[in-house]
Amino acid sequence: MTTQKERMYKVYHIRPIGETDTSKYYVGVTKNALEFRLLQHFTSKRPVGAILRDLGREAVEIVLIGTGSKAEALEMEYKLRPVMNIGWNCKAGGDYSTVRCSGCGKPLPKRKTGAMCDSCNPCRFVKGAVPANKGTGVKAFFKSPTGEVMTYTSITDFCKEHGLQPGNLRKVIKGLREHTKGWTLVKNEG
């Protein structure tokens, strides 16, 4: 049985020379040599690159914080940068999405601020549920083909009950049609 050698990753801290506070400045993970990684940051278009270029190569140092497997290194980075915008870091550490569901912890990559996923907080309308705005629309009174005057709380329910099309009934309310299947507008309270 052969075991494949696991690559070691380095957790590093880029900081002004002499500073030791890991809650400030930049923390990252690399599989490359630290000096090479520092050079990459100096040429980066990200905010850390601009900061480093302003300080100058002589004023900063890159220091090894720890080593481990990729998962261990990312976890170590995450502990130092659990949320975005700590020190010079823009993103949260540990290769995690910067925004996670507050209910289950699922990554929400397309969100910029905290939110909940659809599983924890379904925001889409569920088929069969009663809409929050049911019965709050325009009230109108209609005369049926038999001469009976009726009103509704939900135009869709009213149309289903009487075999009408909601779009046609709305046109009657707006005055775009005189009637639909014999139903005429008596009074509009909207």
Summary keywords:
alpha+beta, 19% strand, Arc Repressor Mutant, subunit A, 5 helices, three-stranded antiparallel sheet, 7 strands, 190 residues, rod-shaped, 24% helix
Spans of at least 5 consecutive residues with low confidence:
none
Intertermini distance: 80 Å
- Arithmetic mean pLDDT: 84
Query: N-to-C SSE series?
Result: EEHHEHEEHHEE
Strand order of the largest sheet: 5-4-7-6
Number of E-state strands: 7
Which helices and strands, and how do they pair?
Elements: E1 9-16, E2 26-30, H1 34-42, H2 47-55, E3 60-68, H3 70-80, E4 140-143, E5 149-150, H4 155-162, H5 166-174, E6 179-180, E7 183-188
Tell me what the structure shows.
The relative contact order is 0.10. A hairpin with a 2-residue loop joins strand 6 (179-180) and strand 7. The mean pLDDT is 84. By secondary structure, the chain is of the alpha+beta class. Among the domains are: 9-80, no CATH class; 140-188, Arc Repressor Mutant, subunit A, CATH 1.10.10.10. The strands form 2 sheets. It has a 4-stranded antiparallel sheet with strand order 5-4-7-6, covered by helices on one side. It has helices spanning 34-42, 47-55, 70-80, 155-162, 166-174, and strands at 9-16, 26-30, 60-68, 140-143, 149-150, 179-180, 183-188. The protein starts with 8 loop residues before the first strand and ends with a strand.
Short description:
It contains 5 helices and 7 strands. The model has no long low-confidence stretch (mean pLDDT 84).
